[in-house]
Structure formats: C-alpha cells, structure tokens
Amino acid sequence: MDIYLFAIFLMACGAAGATGAVFTPGAWYQSLDKPWFTPPNWVFPVVWTSIYLLISFAGARLAVIDGNAYAMAFWAAQAALSTLWTPLFFGLRRIKGALFAMGPLWLSVLGCTWSAFSLDFWAGAAFIPYLIWVTVAAALNVEMLRLNPNVTALTSEEIE
Q1: What is the CATH number of domain 3-159?
Q2: Would you say 52 and 110 are in contact if contact means Cβ atoms under 8 Å apart?
Q3: Please, what is the angle between helix 43-63 and helix 3-22, to 10°?
Q4: CB-side exposure of 124: number of CA atoms within 13 Å?
Q5: pLDDT digits (tens, 9 = 90+) for 85-94
Q6: 151 SS3 class
C-alpha cells in the first residue's frame, strides 16, 4: 500500500467528515424521540474515525490495481454522497430528505464493497464495517422519521 495514496484518501475522508464538525447534533437532536438501538453519542466519532481509516486503506490498495474503474468510481460516489446526509439531517433538520440521500449512499457503499472484493480481498473487507454502519444509520433515519413525524425543517429565514 502506498502511504501517499493513503494520505490522499484520508484527506478526502476528512473533508467529507468535516460536515460533522460544521453541523453538530445539538439540542434539536437531543429533543428527538430516538429508537431503542440508537448508539450513545460517543460511539459516532469512534466509528467514523475507524471507518475513514479503513476506507482510506481500501482506496489506497484499490488505486494501484488495473481494472479499478468501478471501484474508484464507487469510492468517489460514496465520499461525495456521505457529505450530503449530515447537512440535511442536522443542518436543515430534514429527516425525510436525509433518508432520500441515504439510499444512494448505501448503494454506493455496497457497490464499492462489491467491486473492491472483486479486486482485492482486504480492500473489500475494509468496506464491510462501513456497509454495516450505513445500514444501521439508514434504520436510525427511518425510525427517527417514524418517531418524530411532526418535526419541521428549518425555514430559509432560520438558516440565515
């Protein structure tokens, strides 16, 4: 594995993860009814840090393999799509909108996992925790919508 490629992929993950620092959960999130399987707040940064390290490792391994076009396209798609969910859910408080962003994200993570396994076992294995986490996040999003049907999104005046 090329350490410089790893660093580039890790920077891309850091950029995607920066939305979590900009759009923090805050009091609004604390006031929501949450499903029984909601992890404690401390779990989220631990899991995301682990996932970013793993998928950076996977990206660095995949980048040097011939025939990696689909794997790299899915890697880029999941990185881009992962930046959408946090601003929609926490920033704009659009629980349903965040759920619509989750679908393509889940598919891109699945696509990357599948295509990575076809090229390199360890790169594919590195994506398994992410696929599990995005599945849990999707279930949390669905349940948050179900448990909080009357939550209103921020208006344009509130955003400014």
Answers
A1: 1.20.1260.100
A2: no
A3: 150
A4: 11
A5: 888 888 888 8
A6: coil
Domain segments of the chain as ranges: 3-159
- The answer to whether residues 140 and 43 touch, using CB atoms and an 8 Å cutoff, is no
DSSP state of 33: -
- Nearest Cα to Cα of residue 37 among 136, 128, 134: 136
> Which residues 6+ apart lie within 8 Å of 53 measured at CB?
10
The Cα–Cα gap between 97 and 81 comes to 13
Please state, in angstroms and rounded to a whole number, the distance separating the CA atoms of residues 75 and 93.
27
Which residue matches tokens 């999941």? 78
**pTM of the predicted model, to two decimals?**
0.89
